[in-house]
Design goal:
The chain has two domains: 2-196, Sandwich (Jelly Rolls); 207-284, Alpha-Beta Plaits. By secondary structure, the chain is α+β, with helices and mostly antiparallel strands. The protein has four helices and 19 strands. The protein has helices at residues 2-17, 188-196, 223-235, 263-277; strands at residues 22-28, 31-35, 38-41, 53-56, 61-66, 71-74, 79-87, 93-107, 117-123, 126-139, 143-157, 162-165, 170-175, 182-185, 207-208, 213-220, 240-247, 250-260, 282-284. The protein has a 15-stranded mixed beta sheet that branches. Strands 17-18-16-19 form a four-stranded antiparallel beta sheet, with helices on one face.
Length: 285
């Protein structure tokens, strides 16, 4: 059994070497990736690099999948900087994430809890060193805190205070301009409310990798008009695409939002698009 498990973990590590270090798994728009001073709307399947910054808008959520199988979730009005993504010098997965604003959740794949990793997440004044675990945290104007849902972490404050955490539903609190309060216990209902801040609810108009449905934002023979819709969507944080097609002797331009997992999600996004842009968007396969 030990040999089989070792071989399986080695195979996973070997595959990871040639895979993107992080990809966008799901997006509840609006959300953006900032790279080299340029903003681009987030889309499922988009690959991320070290120094990329992820931003979410009002009512937005983003799920990122790391190459080691872990998932990072970012809540609305959040900012996350991928300071480092990639193998360490010893060739196991290494990452440093900086949550500058909003709520996040980091969850490790069950099987890969046994594999080696070096992951740190900084939440403003608090840094968490991750082993196989599930944590949630948030930076707010009045405090920074990290809640342990499962596993073990080491938390440290910028003033030098360091603690080991291994009890589920405990959290480390660091008020602004005050000494850290240390480790406290949260009741399950409070934790459930916290967790909802980073979850994408059903019927929210989410874009997911592998989604087969599309939302038709515009269909026009006039290229400038089509580009105007495309630009409006991009600036607002929606990853639209342009599909030209020949109809008779004319070229029509379709502006689409892709990767919707089903009709319900497409209809929900259509309602949001109509409210925001005044567009009569149409779900399509």
């Amino acid at each position: 059994m030990k040999m089989t498990l070792a071989c399986a973990l080695f195979a996973l590590a070997t595959q990871a070497m040639g895979a993107p270090q992080a990809v966008v798994d799901a997006v509840q728009s609006p959300a953006w990736r900032d790279r080299d001073g340029k903003a681009m709307p987030l889309a499922p399947g988009m690959e991320l690099q070290s120094r990329d910054r992820i931003r979410t808008g009002e009512g937005s959520r983003v799920y990122l999948r790391l190459v080691d199988g872990s998932t990072v979730k970012l809540g609305e009005n959040g900012i996350l900087l991928a300071e480092r993504l990639g193998p360490s010098e010893k060739q196991f997965f290494s990452a440093a994430l900086d949550v500058a604003k909003g709520a996040f959740r980091f969850t490790t794949d069950k099987l890969r809890k046994l594999s080696r990793r070096d992951v740190t997440i900084r939440v403003a004044t608090v840094t968490a060193g991750i082993r196989g675990t599930d944590i949630w945290g948030k930076t707010e104007p009045e405090r920074d805190f990290v809640c342990l849902l499962e596993g073990k972490i080491t938390v440290s404050h910028q003033d030098g205070d360091t603690r080991e955490m291994s009890e589920p539903l405990t959290f480390y609190v660091a008020p602004r301009n005050q000494p850290p309060r240390g480790i406290e216990t949260a009741d399950p209902e409070t934790v459930k409310k916290w967790a909802a801040e980073t979850e994408i609810p059903a019927g929210a108009g989410v874009l997911r990798r592998g989604g087969k449905w599309k939302l038709l934002l515009a269909d026009s023979e006039d290229q400038p008009s089509a580009l105007e819709v495309y630009d409006r969507a991009a600036v607002a944080g929606y990853a639209a695409s342009i599909r030209p097609r020949i109809v008779g002797e004319a070229i029509r331009y379709e502006i689409l939002l892709r990767n919707l997992p089903g009709k319900t999600e497409a209809e929900a996004l259509a309602a949001r698009v109509k409210a925001q842009f005044g567009l009569e968007a149409r779900p399509t396969r």
